[in-house]
Amino acid sequence: MNRKKMMSDGVEKETSRAPLNVAFYIRVSSDKQAKKTDGSLDTQRDRLTQHVDYRNDHPQDERPWKHTETLVEGEKDGVRHGKSAKNENRPAYQKLLELAEARLIDIVIVTKLDRISRNVQDFLNLAEKLISWDVKLVSLHESLDFTTPAGKLMATLVAALAQFEREMTSNRVSEKYDWRAEKGFPSGKPPSGYLSKDRSRTWVFDPPWSDHVRAMDALYLEHQSTDKIVVEFDKRGYRTKSGKRYTKPMIWQMLRSAAYAAKIGRKGETYSGNWPALRTLETHDKIQSIMDRNNLHRGRATRDHAEYIYLLQGVLRCGSCGRKMTPKAGTGRSGKPYPYYVCNGAEKSKGLDCGLKYVPATSLDNAVLDFLKELQLTPERLEAFARQSRESNSVTIKRLKSDLAKTHHQMGALAPRIASILDAIEGRDPAGNALLKARLAVLEAEQHDLKEAEKKLASELAAEESEVVSAADALESLTLFHDLVEHHARQPERIKSLLARFADYVVWHPTGKGAGRLDVGLFADAVALAKEVTYPATGASTGPRFAGESVEVDPTGIEPATSRMQIWRSPN
Questions:
Q1: Per-residue pLDDT tens for 222-270?
Q2: Domain chopping of the chain, boundaries
Q3: pTM of the complete model
Q4: Is CATH 3.40.50.1390 the classification given to domain 4-165?
């Protein structure tokens, strides 16, 4: 029996004579080159194939090379096109990175370095990523080979150079922003209501949008609600420069911006800007005080509902407008918490862009689980399904790690602000500490929320990493989904991570009061039976009701439209 070695990401790889998976990356710049028969694309493929054969005939490694992937930039549906390498916005290049990060390939081979990158910084970034994923790079023309001892030394130097260049660039940009803040010069794009002037050295008013800002401030001081501002702006016919309605996130960001008071915040310091203010500093402080108080109230409500795990978070979409549906906590008249999903478009515009109302989360979550328990998968599709499962898992882990890092950064930025207020309270007369103590309470509540978010993300990440399985395990799990759900009935985080292996996305189509249809997008063209689903309007535990057998429909127009999903829905 072959010995096995457990990799750092939890995936087992055979270490005896298991072949190294090799990916070819092939590219030309122009359509003329791409469409030429026996041209550069075919020549590159032949040279790469010959090199793999040579390495196997004259082995330098204990393990043979096996060509498993050919990524031709610009090739689609059998038609070839040229593609520039001036940036990283290339489909085949991005697919290469996905395969490397998922550890589905061991070696990337190109004929020349300029085939994969024409930019020094892009190449350094690519090399650093491949090194971190333990994927080797080989370029025939430059005799660059990260699989040899000399190549490994070069890889170390490349990674160090990339780190050095990144830090130097970051320092230069930071110093430039520091200098502009000290001089009172604005940085970045001017907010709504202002225009750049004198080569971005100052801003000036931009009617009528500057009038919108003044109206927004007055409405918020009167009603203390962003919802009412959105509705009132729509009644008045106010639109953004791009002709769109104002949304809650836009209003919230504008109310929070100190730029309207001609102030610049930089590294804990506040500087006076050289542009005219649209609101006084006193008005700005009043607005911040009201928003802090409202956030403190909402923070308490959010903590009350933190226990519920939204299984469809990140995959649920609105069938009316196509936008994502996100979790939203609600409270009944008796104070009992209720978890819901709500359309982002409806929530941001207060129902102006999309009329979809709140949908009970428990009903939709249970309906999708019941649907997946009834999946009937053909054996010939299972291997491809398992591969897609591993790729999905890798992306999920990357997202969770990114969210966790952002939370750590926010907590780190919050700590000195709390310490500064505590120091100020100690040095003041108790009678003058009321405002500082109120501000401290807001910051401490925000700190508590961040700690709770950190715990939740860490728990989800741990559950996701523990669910990283080999292809054989994934194949077995497909036939035992019902048992897996039952086994993890008391671990919703685990069920949530399992769902990502089966469903690419779920679309909710409301068909009437308390009723609707769910479309489930499956990975890897899995053959399944889907049903029409209605849920109880009250969100009661009676469960979903099913009717009718599914037929296949064209997924065109429903995003994200990819080649690895099919949508099944009941006929009308």
A1: 999 998 999 899 899 999 999 998 988 899 999 999 999 999 988 888 9
A2: 4-165, 194-295, 308-348+355-377+479-572, 379-469
A3: 0.45
A4: yes
